Amino acid sequence: MGRQLLLEHINVAGIQSYEVYKQKGGYAALEKALKTMAPDAVMEEVKKSGLRGRGGAGFPTGLKWSFLDRKSTKPRYLVCNADESEPGTFKDRYLMEKIPHALIEGMILSSFALGANTAYIYIRGEYFYVHKILEKAIDEAYAAGWLGKNIMGSGYSLDLYMHIGAGAYICGEETALLESLEGKRGNPRIKPPFPAIAGLYGAPTVVNNVETIAAVVPIINLGGDEYAKIGVGKSTGTKLISASGHINKPGVYEIELGVSVEEFIYSDQYCGGIKNGKRLKACVPGGSSVPILPVDLITKTAKGETRLMTYESLSDGGFATGSMLGSGGFIVYDETACIVRSLWNFSRFYHHESCGQCSPCREGTGWLEKVLHRIEEGHGKMSDIDLLWDIQRKIEGNTICPLGDAAAWPVASAIRHFRHEFEYHVKYPEKVKDPKHGHYEPIMPPKKEEAVIV
Ligand SMILES: Cc1cc2nc3c(=O)[nH]c(=O)nc-3n(C[C@H](O)[C@H](O)[C@H](O)COP(=O)(O)O)c2cc1C
Ligand code: SF4
Questions:
Q1: Quick one: 365 and 330 in the same domain?
Q2: Are 71 and 195 within one domain?
Q3: CA angle, 228 as apex, 232 and 96 as ends, to 5°?
Q4: Residue 90: nearest ligand to its CA?
Q5: Contacts of 412 (CB under 8 A, 6+ apart)
Q6: Domain count across the chain
Q7: What's residue 9's pLDDT?
Q8: What percent of the chain has a predicted confidence (pLDDT) above 90?
Q9: 449 lies in a domain?
Q10: What is the span of the domain harbouring residue 261?
Q11: Which residues make beta-bridge pairs with 206?
Q12: The domain spanning residue 283 has which CATH number?
């Protein structure tokens, strides 16, 4: 197991409470910053650390912070994106549930660096039991003097609020989140202007993911340069990965970026290999929105290099032969999984969650779902496969927010790598109607010349 910067004390009894968190070194980074550092110095450490946003896009955090409009006379806001609804992703929930003060300390540190006196945690509605945990942690932080006016005599003041969403995936998109926080329907805004210029209530705002904000604590404890030594290239530090699917040990793992994908899947420290001795068929490494990788591209890139758990390596080869680290929602498929069925499931989700503002997404996600459903149910035609390809092409890049792309990319990659499975569904409708569908005797690896469902 590599270094544990976020989850080191996760199994310590009582770590949810302020007292135990403090005993384990909690709030030391904040104390250091408030007593010995100027806000710009905190930002400088974050820049040096190379930290990239853990919400999905991997944008450099220090750079994002530097875009904040400092000339504006309006208040500045920090908003934590705790909406976490990406299928396959559950690491923010784990962090908030197990060690809530790591997020609270990160929020205060980050707000201090940004000069924000008001901050919000926008949390997914369905995480109702986590709301209570966070609320208690916020109250404890106020009682201990880490929140409120003139924190620890530093002259810096901060109020922190938790806002509970109503359970819409689109409210995780940062501008939809801001609309929702303002009390409106969560429709994404057209950008520019970006939130750093005109965000919450039209004021300069930074929106960051839970894990990104929590990572600021070890960055200040270690120093940005030390943090940047962990990882490979531009993928620095540690990353939480939510591992699910056909593996022996599903769960949340903190990895040092740069671990090989093979080690992550097969080592007992992490996923512990494929369940029931079955063979690996495919993997979606970064949440349902990213391209699926077939078995031959999971542990090696198309160039034959070892595939690493880094932003760069997972996307090596572009969308033709690569994927993305995304939010770290690592979904593993064994040889019994049906790719068409899984894709139809994802498409139902995107259709349901489209906010409906742009027609390519509103109509296109519905068409993807309909066509995938009929192929899966054994009523498809060969031309439906090209129709699916055509629909996803018309969505990608033609929408206000990336939900459209998120719906299109998995379809494109599934057709690119598993076209034979779609063809099999069309050619042998009686087999796909088999009630045992999805659980056929394993036939591996999938042969491209002759369609097989395994
Ligand atoms: C449809 C959609 C849903 C998203 N959901 C989340 C989410 O649940 N949590 C999150 O942190 N980012 C989510 N994002 C990304 C945010 O828009 C934004 O990039 C992120 O919160 C920035 O934080 P970071 O820089 O720390 O990664 C979503 C984006 C889209 C398009
Ligand atoms: S892409 Fe979809 S979710 Fe995003 S704004 Fe357009 S319709 Fe709404």
A1: no
A2: yes
A3: 100
A4: 1
A5: 291, 319, 389, 392, 393, 396
A6: 3
A7: 97
A8: 91
A9: no
A10: 232-240+250-334
A11: 78
A12: 3.10.20.600
